[in-house]
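Supplementary material to the annual report.
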Amino acid sequence: MKIAVCLKAVPSTTADIRPAADGKSLQLGGVEMLVNPYDEYALEAALKLREAFPGSTILVVTAGGDEAAKCVLHAFSVGADTAVQIKAAGLSARGAALAVAAALKEFAPDIVLCGRQAIDDDQWEFPGALAELLDAPHLTAVTALSVAADGKKLSCKRRFNRDEQTLEATLPAVVSCDKGLNEPRAATLKGRLDAKKKLPALKTPADLGLDPAALNSSLRLDTYSPPPQKTPGKTIALAAPEAARELVRWLREDAKAI
Amino acid sequence: MKILIVAEFAAGALKKSAHELSSAARAVDAGVELHALVLGPGAGAVASELASWGVGTIHIGESGFETYAPLRWTRAIAGVSKSLNPDAILMGAGALSRDIAGRVALRAGGSLASDCTGLSSGGGFKIVRPTHAGRVTVGASFSGPGPLVATLRANAFSIVKPAQPGAGVVVNLSAPLETADLRALVTASVQAPGTRPELAEAAIVVSGGRSLGSAENFKLIYDLCDVLGAAPGASRAAVDAGYAPHSMQVGQTGKTVNPALYIACGISGAIQHLAGMRTSKTIVAINKDPNVPIFKIADCAVVGDMFQILPILTDEFRKLLK
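Predicted assembly:
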């Protein structure tokens, strides 16, 4: 099988992310960038598929500024075969889908795996948009995945509102991965050393036949602000029965929340 | 202005998100030409309810929409959009929009803004949406091309019934089955047991942390939820410890919630957790440690032992609310 995995470098979940003083951008200097956590499930799923289908190849695609190199290094260190790194900083989810679709054309994957959402822009847009561009079906936020022995169909499970759904799809398909699908492996020391010897194919949007302007979002991002700050409120420090009753009173009479 | 809302329903009634979408559309433009699209068996039954929310034209697709297939839903929404050419398509931020909104936006020739908490007009649209799991609020503007596809976060838009109902003209969708649209489809669907509300939509959320100590002790959370009609949530630490399923996780790698009331029990308030719940209208935190970070954003900080306080709290509310 030809397996493609899409990875994005995002600020670490513990990073202190603040809008710049003028509110026109984010301060990301010095912020640690990591592989998007949901993309790690996609990468692990790819490695498992290659184990199940010997002779498969894993191509990793990432797009972004210099931080994208983190994704390439991590993917090689756990055993990805080849990688394409698209040099295009500040892409929107739509822009990334356009760039990745162009980069995947030649590889013609049987399955494309990615995370359900990038935890920086939280758009939930990339997988569906990529599938549309590749004219493939897509399956969102799956927690179980199996590919039939003939390599032509796949079956997935996911939570959809209150329902536990089973989905079937024909390949090629785009699958976005959720927590619970697998436990991503850590790189071994040997893997890390080997990874340094591998290099990604570096591409610019122009190399892929794309007009960089066409990758810009038509949503104009005007302002960045911190979330509304809350001031600490009331404190209840009483013995349990009194504390519970005072909380009930406060919720009903002061907060009018119940 | 012309706006198309994708209305979802269950058990013969509109979901709350449909009330929010229609209210948001009328708040954007009081004179809006409001269309609704409803897909699935029994969709026609909510037509009169939609009219009461100010909808002028209701596009119904029942036949061929018995089994959920993302591409079939995408084609239906994009198709109605192509014929109406609306300024915006609004969907509730939930499982359906997370599945197909990106695809719909591309096919309809427009752009997607997910999980909006604000939407207004003025030389196009002004959008407010949180990013980085709520640690940043972005203000954006959109003036085409194509429709704005906006998904609206639950509990972020006020629900206002119009003084006058809409015309409620029903149009049945002619949507011949395309086999290519069945390349991915649901083959089995089992409803999760229980009657608790969905976490992302609930008006009240009660969450537990790892200090509950076991899956069995989460009963303290579930009991209070059932008395309050609340949805149970959990911190990542509690999920990773196996005390609660991932579907209950609140925070950056779980669900973002925006309820009217959030009660955090034994949760210290890691930055990733706060990111997922900080926009809640009223926040109550119960914790033994007076120095936990969650107390900094709590409207009411209860310093004490949740193992003692929760059963009493549940009893008090059981008496009051029965």
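The two ends of chain A are 56 Å apart (CA to CA).
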